Amino acid sequence: MPPHAPALAFSAVSPATLIGVAATYLKGEDIQLLERAFAVAATAHHGQLRKSGEPYITHPLLVATILAEWHLDAQALMAALLHDTVEDTHTTSNEIAQQFGKAVSELVEGVSKLDRLEFQTEQQAQAENFRKMLLAMARDVRVILIKLADRLHNMRTLEAMDEGRQRRIARETLDIYGPIANRLGLHAVFQEMQDLCFRYLFPNRYQVLSKAIKAARGNRREVVSKILSALTQRLESFGVEAVITGREKNISSIYNKMLGKSLSFSEVLDIYGFRILVKDVAHCYLALGALHTFYKPFPGKFKDYIALPKSNGYQSLHTTLFGPFGTPIEIQIRTHDMHKIAEAGVASHWLYKSSDTPLSDVQQKTHQWLQSLLEMQTESGDAVEFLEHLKVDLFPDAVYVFTPKGTIKSLPRGSTPVDFAYDVHTDIGNRCVAAKINNELSPLRTILTNGDRVEIITAENAAPNPAWLNYAVTAKARSKIRHYLRTMLADESIVLGQRLLNQALRALHVSPHDIKDAQWELFLKGDRSKTRDEVLEEIGLGRRLNIVVARGLLSRSDIQSQEGLGSITIRGSEGVAIQFAHCCRPIPGDPIIGIIKKGQGLMIHTQDCRAIRQFRTDPDKWVDVEWENDTGKLFDVAIKLMVVNRRGVLAIVASAISEAQSNIDSVSIAKPDGAYTEINFTVQVKDRSHLATLLHHLREIPEVVRITRVQN
């Protein structure tokens, strides 16, 4: 306990403030339940202290008070009071369920951390905790509201922690909890969290900016007063009743604007912000017209979030005006109801509703988002990947595009037609082959902009391309692509695993047909895998050795074997379970070797590839492979040409490549060095013989000085 923070008397902790706030909207019987929940929590936490020296019960009490300010129901407030009892005291979930009902117990369980399980890394433990919490949240949004209030109070009292924990908790809050608060529309919570995180992550910058803002307040007061008076008179002349307040930017947003737009502190502070609240939507637009005919608007600075609400339900008109003496004025215009949603989001109208009450627009969007989390979790490989998808999905900025039928789709900024396709439907995304943007064919990697009309072209036999992961932005698209590729990889790995196992059995002079179901049943009884396919998949992915499984199967039978390893044939069309190394780019005719890469399957290299020298001494890491006689496939080869620096030489070379029945996949030209220029091609050939024919064609060109096949 810090020496300067003596413990408060336990009897001094009272729920009076919580009860006072809750009594403004809850019934008498609910208040009695709250008092009983406080008594249970206070008894359970008796003798426990926070790092600050305060009785521990002050924390759940203040968390419940924050929720009462949001007008959450009695069940949520009771769960907040009890949320640490299961984890930190001897109280059990069953005891909470018996005293306060199953719903309260489930809320407490959803907020509690995982039991002390063994995880390989801190990141994995953190990710698993988030996964559990968010799945509970998908069932009941009150879980995350309690957790956000819990984190907000922890951030408010973070000063008692050591510097290392302050930074870790602040970083976690900035990366996850703040964006979730923003995604759910709790703007006031989001802003406070941002400021508190900034304070602990950048303490020196925080102190400097805090002092500068306090010093500038007095100088700004007169300017703010004059602008406020002018705005009020203008709106009154148009018959608009409004409540106008000046908005002071929070410290973190000032710093981010300075950093993002390379502005000085004085330049950021010279932008004055005002919020105008009116009675209805019609008066929002009337107020906008009054102000736009009073002060000139900045071009391109108007945003209509009333017609096109943000994904978290936020609605407002935003405009920037040239004020008196050219002073920029940022204006937000909204109704009083919009303001409640802007400040408290989904919590602003939570008061627990019956199942037959229709959901508001904000609640519907929140429900859809929570359902998408459930989909992501079922398709993610592990908790860390799920957390990565969640972080991607918490982008605050949006771009609005249209379907061919005129339906508006809101996507994160930077989204591409691939993201759009998956947002429409998973099947559309999986079968996507091309896109039309504003009636023009466009690459799938094109970044969408506001107002684009997007049409997706599909094909029945199309499938997701791994390259899409390089430019897909939304969590849904990335999750669906990865799920499809993982499923495809599993299927292909089983096929490859069977081929590798057959190879090992033949090397032991045993026919694969001699291995019966009985041997497999005996083998699986003492194995970590539960099915034959799991074993074969692990072989295909390089997670276990084919020869070890072969011997294990034979040890469960009377079949005799002899050593001696054969080879496996490569067609070139096996899919993602067999891959061709980019370092040496093998083609039919090259002597090759297969390296077993854990979790990735079989990687094919040329036998002289420098990248595999370390594996050649370990026979457990590689297998003999050979090319099938006619693969019927084209393979990429990198070639480098040194040519005379002369006009039209690229066209001559490209024509020769085409005449040799080869395709050009990519080309790059180095900066000319005097009389010569280096051109790098990636071309497609059938085999080594085809490559030799191509190189012969190129050597006949007078301008070609030197040709090299690029490997390693």
- Give the amount of beta strand, in percent: 15-25%
**CATH homologous superfamily of the largest domain?**
Hypothetical protein af1432
The radius of gyration computed from the alpha-carbon positions, rounded to a whole number of angstroms, is: 33 Å
How many separate helices?
Answer: 27
**Number of individual domains:** 5
* Number of beta strands: 20
Average pLDDT, rounded to a whole number, is 80
Helix content: 40-55%
For the termini, the CA-CA separation is 60 Å
Secondary-structure content class: alpha+beta
Q: Please summarize the sheet with the most strands.
A: 6 strands, mixed
- Contiguous low-pLDDT stretches (5 residues minimum) are 1-11, 114-120, 350-357, 562-566
**CATH hierarchy: architecture of the largest domain:** Orthogonal Bundle
* CATH topology-level fold name of the largest domain: Hypothetical protein af1432
CATH class of the largest domain: Mainly Alpha
Shape: globular
Description:
The chain is α+β, with helices and mostly antiparallel strands. The chain folds into five domains: 10-203, Hypothetical protein af1432, CATH 1.10.3210.10; 209-347, Beta Polymerase, domain 2; 397-473, Roll (Ubiquitin-like (UB roll)), CATH 3.10.20; 483-620, no CATH class; 635-710, ACT domain (Alpha-Beta Plaits, 2-Layer Sandwich). The chain contains 27 helices and 20 strands. Strands 1, 2, 3, 4, 5 and 6 form a six-stranded mixed sheet that branches. The chain has a five-stranded mixed sheet with strand order 12-16-14-15-13, with helices on one face. Strand 14 (592-597) and strand 15 (601-606) form a beta hairpin. Helix 8 (122-139) crosses helix 18 (383-393). The longest helix has 35 residues, at 203-237. The radius of gyration is 33 Å and the shape is globular. The two termini are 60 Å apart.
